[in-house]
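for the recovery benchmark. C-alpha cells below, seq after
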C-alpha cells in the first residue's frame, strides 16, 4: 500500500511514495526527465532505469507521485561484493575511515526532485522510504553519495538532518565518469568537476 504525504491545506496537493515498476512506462519516462533536469543530461539513461526497475531484488526505485505526475525519484541499491570493494577504495583512499567489507551496504545515490517541488520534504520522504527498503533487503550500513552543489536545497543538508555522518569529500568525483559516459553536469554544463560528499549511517 502506498504511503500518503503532505497536507493539501498547506502544500496544495497529496503525493504517494511508490515503487516504480517495469510496467510504469509513463513514470519511467518522467523519472528520466527529472534526472536530466536535476542531475544532468544522460546521467541515468532510460535503458539503465528500466534495468533498475526490473531488478527489485537489488534496486530500490521509488517515486513521489500523485495519480498521474511524478514529482521526485530515487534509486538505491544493495552493493554487490565488487561494488562494495570499489566504494571501499574510494572511501578510504586518503585515510582509513571504515572497512565497508565488514558490512552489507545499502547505497543511496540518486535522489532528485523537480525544481518547482523542492523544499517540501519530497526528497526526504523518498530517502527515508529507501532506507526502510534497503534495511528490509538486509543492509546494516547505509552509504550515501551527495552532490555538493552548494545550493540551499542540496542533499547534503538533508542527509545531515537524517542523522548521517559526513565522513569524506572527494573532488572531481564524477569527472572521469562524465567524460566516459557523456552526461552533462547541470552546474558545470559539460564535463563534471563537482565534488562528492560521502555520508555513513549505521543501522541499529
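predicted aa per position
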Amino acid at each position: 500500500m502506498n504511503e500518503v504525504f503532505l497536507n493539501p491545506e498547506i502544500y496544495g496537493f497529496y503525493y504517494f511514495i511508490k515503487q516504480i515498476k517495469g510496467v510504469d512506462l509513463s513514470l519511467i519516462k518522467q523519472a528520466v526527465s527529472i534526472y536530466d533536469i536535476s542531475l544532468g543530461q544522460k546521467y541515468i539513461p532510460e535503458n539503465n532505469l528500466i534495468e533498475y526497475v526490473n531488478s527489485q531484488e537489488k534496486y530500490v526505485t521509488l517515486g513521489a507521485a500523485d495519480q498521474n505526475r511524478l514529482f521526485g525519484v530515487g534509486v538505491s541499491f544493495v552493493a554487490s561484493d565488487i561494488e562494495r570493494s570499489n566504494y571501499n577504495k574510494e572511501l578510504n583512499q586518503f585515510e582509513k575511515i571504515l572497512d565497508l567489507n565488514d558490512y552489507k551496504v545499502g547505497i543511496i545515490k540518486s535522489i532528485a526532485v523537480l525544481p518547482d517541488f523542492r523544499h517540501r520534504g519530497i526528497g526526504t520522504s523518498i530517502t527515508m522510504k529507501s532506507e526502510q527498503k534497503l534495511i528490509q533487503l538486509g543492509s546494516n550500513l547505509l552509504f550515501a553519495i551527495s552532490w555538493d552543489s552548494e545550493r540551499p536545497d542540496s542533499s547534503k543538508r538533508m542527509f545531515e538532518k537524517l542523522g548521517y555522518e559526513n565522513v569524506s569529500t572527494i573532488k572531481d568525483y564524477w569527472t572521469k565518469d562524465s567524460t566516459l559516459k557523456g552526461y552533462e553536469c547541470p552546474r558545470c554544463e559539460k564535463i563534471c568537476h563537482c565534488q562528492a560528499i560521502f555520508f555513513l549511517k549505521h543501522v541499529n
